[in-house]
Amino acid sequence: MIPYAVIEAESECLSEEAIRLRRDFHAHPELGFQEHRTAGIIARYCAGLGLEVKTGVARTGVTALLRGALPGRTVMLRADMDALPIQELTDADYRSTTPGVMHACGHDGHMAILLGTASLLAAHRHALRGNVLFVFQPAEENLGGARLMIEEGVLGNPAVDAAFGLHLISILPRGYIGTCRGPFMAAMDTFTIRVRGRSGHSAMPDGSVDAISLSARIIAGLGEGVRQGLPPGSRHLVNIGMVRGGSAPNIVADLVEMEGTVRCLDEQDHPKIPELMDGFLRKTAQACGGSCELIYEHGYPLTVNDPAMTEIVMAAGSLVVGADHVMDLPPSMASEDMSFYLQEVPGCFFFVGAGHPDAASNAPHHNPQFTIDEKALDVGLKMLASTAASFLNTG
Ligand SMILES: [Zn+2]
Ligand SMILES: [Zn+2]
Fold first, then answer.
1. Active-site residue 93, yes or no?
2. What is the pLDDT of residue 302?
């Protein structure tokens, strides 16, 4: 068992190291599945700690296994590695040196926290019951690197008993932890709708079917059409984010394409949504004499926190930031590919507040001005180290 007093005492100098690492990652961001430099730094760092390192997992991912001196279970701690296609507009000394690419979601901080945690726990392997698997996962932003890591066996050797991950978050001030038992982040899917009519002269529309006016009915009614098929209070959103159609002002349009997203927080409702959309589209198209095609793609599943694992995180939070700074958050409509691991093994995903005390200097995630309060790295490091130690000790 590693006492919390030890974690607290040692995190101070390790979090300075984490800040240095984070700034280096920040200055050299890489997009999903292109994290080659990042992976090299991680692999060398973990090898230096004496961990069993694997590279090239899910193309650019890295795993590092710490075997404790005493037998026990295996806990996985995960950080994502990818940056975003955004031109950074901050004036930080360590701002991105790669045009058009930026760590604008805090994943640079996640990797730095996990390396600091690895360093802390590796120094205490003699007192550790069981193993800690540090997982550095590529391509969280839309590409689903987690799914590929699972396909390549990350949960299998040794078998992972529980998985934990965190996200630095600027809407929560530094010094706060937040999570939620059960469904925490929404499932997210994408869709394309092709609306077909029949073109004709706009002065003589008889016999033509206007795909644009049919689309207008769809845009106005789709959300309600889905809602009517689900129980009252169902937590879902259907959003059309792109519409393209028509060819000239005086031609009745014969084709409109729309693209959008579905988000859902209810496990029972989620599988019904494509069918409900399809039913609404058919009915609406038939009434106008047109037709509709729905291309529905499942994205990230629901991120569901195991209640017992969430208790471990909340207890760690009470030690690290104090019970009054541990927030029981409402579920979020955002999504996360941590969900793939949590479908396979129990675990918990949680938020670590990284907002600056001066709220005016906080920009949203995925914004060119995004920054974090780097003191949050120390909080994240203590959270992961004490969560892992506590899970292994209670096995
Ligand atoms: Zn993001
Ligand atoms: Zn993110």
1. no
2. 96
Q: Which residue has the higher pLDDT, 344 or 207?
A: 344
pTM (2 d.p.): 0.92
Contacts of 217 (CB under 8 A, 6+ apart): 284, 288
Distance 139 CA to ligand 2 centre (A): 10
- Same CATH topology for 4-183+302-393 and 187-300: the answer is no
Whether 393 and 129 have beta carbons less than 8 Å apart is answered as yes
From the list 140, 141, 189, 373, the catalytic residue is: 140
Q: What is the pLDDT of residues 166-190, one digit of tens each?
A: 999 999 999 999 999 999 999 999 9
* Ligand 2 center–CA 211 separation, angstroms: 38
E strands present in 246-389: 255-264, 291-300, 303-305, 326-328, 347-355
Q: How far apart are CA 202 and CA 253, in angstroms?
A: 9
Cβ(124)–Cβ(11) below 8 Å? no
Topology (CATH) of 187-300: Alpha-Beta Plaits (3.30.70)
pLDDT tens for 85-135 read 999 999 999 999 999 999 999 999 999 999 999 999 999 999 999 999 999
Contact criterion met (CB below 8 Å) for 264 and 273: yes
Q: How far is the CA of 365 from the centre of ligand 2 (A)?
A: 8
Task: Please say if 16 is a catalytic residue.
Answer: no
Strands 52-57 and 61-67: antiparallel
Ligand nearest to the CA of 106: 2
The DSSP line for 108-142 is HHHHHHHHHHHHHHHTTGGG-EEEEEEEEE---SS
Q: Would you list the domain boundaries of the chain?
A: 4-183+302-393, 187-300
Exactly one of 82, 189, 373, 378 is catalytic; which is it? Answer: 82
Is the confidence at residue 395, as pLDDT, over 80? no
Q: Name the residue with tokens 């396909």.
A: 151
Beta bridge partners of 84: 102
* 4-183+302-393 classified as CATH 3.40.50.720: no
Alpha carbon separation from 76 to 69, 133, 169 (Å, rounded): 17, 5, 21
Task: Answer for the pair 295, 191: CB distance below 8 angstroms, yes or no.
Answer: yes
Sign of CA dihedral 261, 263, 269, 270: positive
* DSSP E strand boundaries for the chain: 52-57, 61-67, 70-80, 129-137, 162-173, 177-179, 182-185, 187-196, 236-245, 255-264, 291-300, 303-305, 326-328, 347-355
